[in-house]
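Q: What does the assembly look like in three dimensions?
Context provided by user:
Components: two
Sequences:
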Amino acid sequence: MENENKNTRRKFLDKGLKIGLATLVGGLGLSQLTSKANAKSKNHSGETMELMTADGKLIQVDTSEVVEVTHSNNHEHKYNVREGMPNRKFVMVVDLAKCKNALKCQSACNKHHYITGDNAWMKVYKMQEAEDTAPYWLPMMCQHCDKPACVTVCPVDATFKRKDGLVLIDNERCIGCRFCMAACPYSTRVFNWGEPGQEITLNMDMTNHTPSPEHAGMPSIKGTVDKCDFCPHAIDNNELPHCVTACPNGVFYFGDKYEDTVTNGEETVRLSKLLEDKSGYRLMEGLGTSPSVYYLPPVDRLVDFEDGLEDFKEFESVEPIEPLEKSE
Amino acid sequence: MNDHKIIIRDLKPKKFGKRDTIWTISLIVIIVAGVIAYIDQLIKGQEVTNMRDYALWGIYISNFVFFVATSFVGSVTVAILRLTNNNWRTPIVRIAEIISLAAIIMAGITIMIDMARPDRLLNLFIHARLQSPITWDVVIIPSYIVISLLLLYFPLLPDFAILKKHFKKKKPKLSKLYGKLALNWTGSKAQKALQEKSIKIIAIMIIPVGILLQTIDAWLFSTTYRIGWDSSSLAPYFISGAFVAGVGALVTLIYIIRKAKKLEEYITDFHFDKLGKFLALACMIYLYFNINEYVMPLFTAKEGEVDHLNELFTGSYSIGFWLVTIIGLILPIIILLFKKGRKPKVMFYVGLAVVIGSWWKRFIIVTPTLLHPFLPIQGVPESWRHYFPSLHEWLITFATLAMAFLIITVCVRYLPVIPIQRTIDELEASKTNTKNTSS
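A: Here is the predicted structure of the complete assembly.
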C-alpha cells in the first residue's frame, strides 16, 4: 500500500515537473517569436550596409538585420579560467619575411605585462642555422603547444592547457621547482628569481590587482614562473595581443583556428590558405609538441636582414627603466 | 662468556673524545652558516643564487642527485649482500644503513631547498598530478626513508637490549632509552623468528624501491627534451652511478669510523679487500654506461649532441669532466684491480676520489645540458651563459653535507656501528664449527 502511494506521488511530481518545464520552454519560445516579429515590423529601414563574409566577399545587408553583439565585461563568470573561452582555438602566424627586428613587439609586451626582470617573454632571435644558409630574425614567444611538455611535468597543475589552446600559469599555485622551464624546448619560460619589484621600478600600485592566469605579470610573484600568455585579457576586450598591434611591419597574425581566420590588424586572411600558400611550418615539429604558433619562411623579403642589426642587443631584452618616472 | 664481554666492550657506543667533539662542533658551525644563508634566500628569493633562466637548476639539484645516489648503498650492500649470503658483510652493514638513511633524509631536505616556494609545499599533495616525475619523487623518497629506517632499526633490537643491560648501573638514563628502543626484546625464539622475517621482507623490499628511487631520479631528467638528458639509458646509468657513489662513501666512512673507534680487529683487511672488489665491480659497470652516454652519441653526431660533448671533452667543463672520469672512475678501477690497492689506507683515498668524483659528476650532468638549449641564448645578460654556484649556494650545500655527516656522527655515537648480537652469534657459530671439526 505504502509503496503504491509513494509511486503515485512520484508520478505526480514527475508529471508536474515536466509540464512546468514544457510551459517554460514554450513561453520562452513564444516571447522570442513575438519579439522577432516585432523587430521586423518595426525597423525595416531599407538602408543597407556593406559587410564582408567569411570567405572574403562583400555583400549588402539591410541595417535592421545587423545586430550589435555586446561583449560582456565580466568574462570570468562566463567561462572557467582553467577551461578557456568556449569553442575557440587561438593560433598565431609569424611571417619571418616581414620581420626586421624592430623590437616593437618586445617593448609592447614588456610594457603591458610589467616585466621587470632581465629576460623578456617575447624575444627576437638572430638566427642562422648553418654557415651557408641565410640569416633571419625569429620572433619567439610561448608556442602554446597542444602537447605542452611543461604541463606534463608540472607536479601541481600550476601550468595548464586550456581548450582554447592557451597554456597559462597559476602563479598562486606554482611551487617554483622550475621543472617546466627544464622541459620547455623553446626556452620561453622566465623565472622571478627575486622580488619582481614592479611597485618600485614601474611605480605601480599592485595592491588592487589579484593575480590571474589571464593576465600574466599583473602582478608577477616572487619564486614563480612567468611567460607569454597570448594576452587573453586583450582577447576578452576584443583586442589583439599587444605584440600583434605593436608590430609596424605586420609580422604577427593572430586568430582562431576554428574560424580559420587570422589577422595582423591590417589584413584578415584565411589561416589554411596562408599556411598553404607560404609554406607555413612550426618550430621543432619533430619533437611532437605541436605548437599553436606557425612560422612563414623568410622568403621574398621586403627588408634586408642587416637592417635589423642596428636594434639587435645580444645581452638585453628588457630595456632599463628610468626609476621614478611616472608614465602611467 | 668472557668473549662476549670483550665484544660488548669493544662495540658499545663510546663517549666522544676531544677530536670527535671538535668535529661535531665544526659540523654544527657549518650547518648554522648554511641555515643563515638559507633564511636569507627565503627572504630575498633565489636571486641570491647564481641560477638564472638558462641555468635554472644548479648545485642544489646536483647535490640532491648525489644524496639520492649515495642512499643506494643501503639497497646494494645490505640487501644484495644479504640475499646472496655474503657473510663478510656483518661488520659493515650497519654503517651502510646509517649512510643510507642520512643520505636519503638529506636528499629530501635538499630538494626542498631548491624549491623557490617552500611555503607551498602542501600543494604537492593538494594538487598532486600523477604524471609528473616530481610527484613520483614525493612518493618514493618518504617510502625510502621509512624502509631505510626500518632496515636500520630491526637488526638493532637485540643490540639495544644488550646495551640496556650493559648501561644499567653506570648510566641509568641511557639504559632506559635503550630499553625503550629495544621494544621489550628478550631474544625469545618467537621474537627472533619475527625479527628475522621482518628483516627479510624489508631487505627484499628495499631493492626494488631503491632501484625505483634511482630510476625516478633519472627520469626527472630524461622526461625532458634536453640534449644529454634525453637518453633511454639514463636510468640504468644513474643506478650504476649510485652503486659507485654509495660504495665509495661506504669505503671512505668505514675507514674513518674504524680508525676513530679502533675497530681494526673487527673490520679487517679481509673486509677491505672484499669491499675493494665490490667497488671495482661498481666502477666497471658505471664505466660501461659512461661509454654508452658519452661515446656512442659521437657516431650519429647530431648537431646539438656533438656541441654538448665537445663542451665536456674540450670546452669549459672539460677539466671537471676529465678529472671526474679519470681520477674518480678509471684510476680507481686500475688501483682496485691490484691486491695492494685494496689495502685499507689506499682504499680510503680511492674511496675519497670516487665520492668527490661522484659528487662533481652530478654537477656535470646537470649544468652543461641546461646551458645548451635548442635555441641560442640571446637577450639576457652575458653572465647568464655561465653558471658557478654563489656564496649562498656553497654555504647551503656544505651545510647539507655537514648535516648528513652530523646524522652519521650522532648515529655512530649512540648506536653500535657493528652489530653486537650478530658478531657474538657468528663467534659462537665458528666455535661450534671448529669444535665439530676437531673432534
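Follow-up: Residues 254 and 278 of chain A are 16 Å apart (CA to CA).
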